Amino acid sequence: MRDLNVQDSSGSPLLSLKRIDVQLGSLDPINRNFVIDRVAVDSPEIHARVSRQGTINWIDFFSRELSELAAHEGAAPDVQPAPLAWSLGEAKLTGGALRWLDESHGKPFHASVEGIDLALQKLDSKGGAAAEFAAAWRLQAAQWIKVDAFSVKGGRLDLAKREVVIDEVAARGASLLIRRAADGSIEFVEPPSLRVVKASQKDSLRPWQVSVAKYRGEDLGLRFEDAAVSPVATHTIEGMSIDAENLSTEPGRTARVSTRLRLNRKGEVEAAGSVKVFPLDLDLKVAVKTLELLPLQPYFTERLNIDVTRGQVTLNGVVQLRQVGTGAVDAATLAGGVSGQVTVGDFYAVDKINSADFLKWKSLYLGKIDVRLNPDSLSIGDVALADFFARVIISRQGQLNLLQIVRQTDAAPSAVAAKLSAQAEGLAGAGTAVAPLVASGKPSLPIKIGKITLQNGDIRFSDNFIKPNYSANLRKIGGSISGLSSVNDSVASLDLRGSYDNIAPINVSGQINPLSAKPYLDLQADIKGIEMSSLSPYSGKYAGYAIEKGKLSLFVKYKIQNDQLTAENRVFLDQLTFGNAVDSPDATKLPVTLALALLKNRNGEIDINLPIAGSLNDPEFSVGGLVVKVIVNLLVKAVTSPFALLGSIFGGGEELSNVEFAFGQALITPPAQQRLENLAKALIDRPALRLEIEGRADPENDPEGLKRDRLDRKLRALKRDDLTRKGVESGSTDAIEIAANEYPVLLERVYRAEKFPKPRNLVGLVKGLPVEEMEKLILANAVVDEEDLRDLADRRAKTVLDWLAAHEVPAERLFLLPVKLVTTDGKSEAANRESRVALSLK
Prior knowledge:
Helix content is 18%, strand content 46%. The chain is α+β, with helices and mostly antiparallel strands.
């Protein structure tokens, strides 16, 4: 038969062919037995169409004939036809084509299968032997699918066993296009929307089994255009080749596969291994080279305030997964894991808010990675970060860039900068400082990291909130952390080093265990010789003074054990000198220059230790809060109780603020001398301090003491005169000592010399009296006025000044204040005595 054309009732083409040759063996319609020796079809062209109503033209074409046949068979229900038997010796189709048109979705979809070549041999209805077949074609489905060549060789079809066995399948020049719309829907080839038809009888026979001994795909590709992100992302797979052996739908069969492809033009991906689908058992070696990160930028650019502008990933590893349960495959039924190594190289990220470099490194290497499932665990043998840079910025609005990496739409991030006075107010009071450290639950996932190595790091800090702006660099950061593990009682060693602005070396060492459920820390760190003049913007804002010069060194020790923190914070300031005053509304009202003078020794050094302690179980615990509290308390103590601060250093405590005297006297007592010795040491070691000296007298108690002192002086003066007349050396009046047997005689001489009325005898002479009565009369008739008390207070002040000056305290730092008369209101406790010299520091 030649030039056959078949059309449906509307005149649309159904089938056309140039030639069909059929060689019949035998035809036996009565016994329903047909033997066809050979069929040859040349250039057949089949037109298949799905209408807008969801009907298929070929089904519509045959529906009438099938209906009539069914009616005919129904007319003779008592006649049971013989089973149909047929066989086909050979069939050959060349140059065939299938034209597909789908209008069921409104927009016409065209596809075509061309160059169809099919060879079939030894096919019969009994399935006594497997038929042999081979096929080849090419495919074009609009813009979505294209296959330049597809071939099947060595095929065998066994109808009886319902098996298809193929020796070789090959595909070449295949490409797919998949799009994701802005609403997230996938745009690809849609299956036809068919009208619902009566379901056919359920097939109760065993399912067909398909096996392919060898598959080869060359020059395969995929293009994925994603409009759901901004900017639109395009990903490509090019030059893909796939080799597979022993493919089968039969459960338990294991296939060998290997593939190689280019991902996004530069990334090279290779994978090879074995795959079993039912149940899942996967064992693949995977290698990825120079996979670029830039194409992934659109997927997080709307969520992050950083742009990744460069970076490449290289990895080598093994993926081993197996299904341990039944049913659907999910994470709960998978065991195995992933092992290998990953390198992220030439990474570069930019801070979009501050328009500055944010993070970059030459190489981040993770080696000996082992991720396990069922049971879950994570192990990394080596982590190495080399030639890295990070930028920490506080913006003009006081916001830290590290807290703005993830975009926040509901609430703006809190400002980093806080006023020192507000901190002092929030932390004032006694007791343990408060604010949470951490209270997060520990993950149950076992984690182990063998060693983390840092090399040639650089961290740059810029504070644009402070005026003038401040910047600093941590350079040459390097070191290692070894033995990190979530196992209880495990301890990792830490050793880090670097430099601050290439001037001050930094060293951190110790033992840590951050991954354990019970944290452990035994850490010590030091930084030596930070130039403090660069910190002048902060001192001007919060202290009210610029820094003219000085160096800062820190030495810290922190230990956490059994949820208890103990720490030492040693601060060493060398030659810290404030410059000009700065008018700042945020500056503390505390007299910081006095605090500086109190803390700085004669060598210009401030060396203080700030120990802290606390419990991690306290929900309001904070290391930062403790440190700030200790510092603030130290400053408050320095300016409100300066003598107590000096006393804690040099001895004497708060008592250094005054020098007490016996009532009516201006002589230094042994307790007062000890107090002055401690004060002199403090003043010599704190050369910036000035001492103000205020002499005081008590109008209630000092007059009696002053009268007694006058009497004692008169007694000593008499004895001194007697010694002088006898030619005996005596020295000063204060050095004269009066024996007990001398006292009554000398007292009577003083008594008789006084000019007040005295008791007399019958003859008018001064009457002799007992010692006690003479003392009472002398003291009762002595007169002490305000001027005498002021003179006493003045002598006391000068006595203290002279004593300090005589003990190497420079006189130019000692200042006398006007004397003061203060009544104690009848109180005689030592703390309320006003027969003293009051001292103050400036």
